[in-house]
Amino acid sequence: MAAAIFSLFIFFISLFIIQTTSSSSSSLPGLQILHAERQIDLSSHIVRVYLTLKVENIEDAPASKVLLAFTPTQFDHLSLVKAAITFGKKKKKSYVPLEVSPTELPNSPNETKYYAISLVKPLAKGETTTLEILYILTHSLEPFPVEISQSESQLVYYHDSAVILSPYHIKQQATIVQIPSNKVESFTQVEPAQRSGSDLRYGPYEERSPYSNSPIVIHFENNHPFAVVEELEREIEISHWGTVQVTEHYKLANAGAKHKGVFSRVEYQSKPTASGVSSFKHLLAELPPRVHSVYYRDDIGNISSSRLRTNSKKSELLIEPRYPLFGGWKATFVIGYAVPLQDFLFESAAGARYLNFSFGCPFADTVVDKLTVKVVLPEGSKDPSVKVSFPVEQSLKTKYSYLDIVGRTVVVLEKKNVAPEHNVPFQVHYKFNPIFMLAEPLMLVSAFFLFFVTSLVYLHIDLSLRK
Ligand SMILES: *[C@@H]1O[C@H](CO)[C@@H](O)[C@H](O)[C@H]1NC(C)=O
Ligand SMILES: *[C@@H]1O[C@H](CO)[C@@H](O)[C@H](O)[C@H]1NC(C)=O
Ligand SMILES: *[C@@H]1O[C@H](CO)[C@@H](O)[C@H](O)[C@H]1NC(C)=O
């Protein structure tokens, strides 16, 4: 009996909790969007969305944050979110970048996820501001059919909403979707919606309440090679003796529609415009100028079919895997190169130095699912710190190579969903005592000395035996 009463009690308590939580789920008061323009660029395999929002504060309390809403699926595939505030018009327009970070709201409807844009100056009641936002999604085009033969084109699906997902009321909005060609199989109509060439235009839509949603599916041709590096490990080793040595391990895949049937090299080579249009046979990496000792090898051995072109601004490395990469196919390879130390290592104060190097993948137009950047500091370096303009996971390790006494500090940076936009400079600062410069030569000298002494002793013994 007591147990029954107790469970009834629990039941009412939980009912009460459900009641209160569901009633407190609400739209976000404070702001409204007067005008929103969205441009969705689907011309490659990386989805880039440009948003322009004219935001107004309609409440008494000043507003210092503007929220962007994403579905859980979009959130998982988000690679980058950038925002800037604009001043002036047309040619006199200027941009001030704003801080953006993921944030959570209690009881968000349909598990909506958020990013918060922090305004430099809070918005007072009745004030408006214009924000420009860019966000990038990876793995958001779904090949359909999932398998194609060598002579077929690649078709993909893109899912989104005709109206912008937002926690705010939007008075007026429009969306333009850019498709790589005018080959559109189908697209969801949400009046008014129309197609002109390779553009689909949705809207204008007026007075949409918070969290309005109007699902759309677009099915279109996209023969862009879906170059995805599933795993990339870059090791950047600093030697104060004059070079920065870079070694990069790639696990590359074509994430497009899977290749069906047998591969015909004859067909591939005789009809390059109609055969394997979504495959890739070479890749172009942009390396720093003054690069030297470049090599490229795969599991079998060194590959000579790579070309290096250098000029004063950059070097271009064109590599050709042993076979063209069709949908679903993979290639594993390593490239290595060295660059002069003075181009990348600088002194910031007495005894303090920093490396300034590029973060992302040097291959054009490539997504990296998991990137690890390891910066191997010279022996005797202390207090490393990293400056990078987006969130990364950081840790430290120690690496021993020959002639090392105390080992080298390795700064390990990890990031998922990396886009070409992440290929920007980052810095690793550290302290270094020049006395350590002597450590290696001293080790060498003592090694030679030891060798000399041992041989001497040996010879001596040997001689004494012969006597
Ligand atoms: C939640 O998702 C469902 C199904 O997609 C949709 O019908 C509903 O309107 C959404 N609710 C909100 C508040 O967005
Ligand atoms: C490949 O080239 C690298 C660097 O030039 C060299 O160290 C390595 O021994 C070569 N490997 C093979 C299998 O030829
Ligand atoms: C890092 O290098 C880039 C050019 O590669 C340069 O524009 C930037 O100012 C450098 N940053 C620092 C902190 O030295």
TrEMBL record:
<dbReference type="Pfam" id="PF04597">
    <property type="entry name" value="Ribophorin_I"/>
</dbReference>
<keyword id="KW-0812">Transmembrane</keyword>
<keyword id="KW-1133">Transmembrane helix</keyword>
<keyword id="KW-0732">Signal</keyword>
<keyword id="KW-0472">Membrane</keyword>
<comment type="subunit">
    <text>Component of the oligosaccharyltransferase (OST) complex.</text>
</comment>
<protein>
    <recommendedName>
        <fullName>Dolichyl-diphosphooligosaccharide--protein glycosyltransferase subunit 1</fullName>
    </recommendedName>
</protein>
<comment type="pathway">
    <text>Protein modification; protein glycosylation.</text>
</comment>
<dbReference type="GO" id="GO:0008250">
    <property type="term" value="C:oligosaccharyltransferase complex"/>
</dbReference>
<keyword id="KW-0256">Endoplasmic reticulum</keyword>
<feature type="transmembrane region" description="Helical">
    <location>
        <begin position="442"/>
        <end position="461"/>
    </location>
</feature>
<comment type="function">
    <text>Subunit of the oligosaccharyl transferase (OST) complex that catalyzes the initial transfer of a defined glycan (Glc(3)Man(9)GlcNAc(2) in eukaryotes) from the lipid carrier dolichol-pyrophosphate to an asparagine residue within an Asn-X-Ser/Thr consensus motif in nascent polypeptide chains, the first step in protein N-glycosylation. N-glycosylation occurs cotranslationally and the complex associates with the Sec61 complex at the channel-forming translocon complex that mediates protein translocation across the endoplasmic reticulum (ER). All subunits are required for a maximal enzyme activity.</text>
</comment>
<comment type="similarity">
    <text>Belongs to the OST1 family.</text>
</comment>
<dbReference type="InterPro" id="IPR007676">
    <property type="entry name" value="Ribophorin_I"/>
</dbReference>
<dbReference type="GO" id="GO:0018279">
    <property type="term" value="P:protein N-linked glycosylation via asparagine"/>
</dbReference>
<feature type="signal peptide">
    <location>
        <begin position="1"/>
        <end position="23"/>
    </location>
</feature>
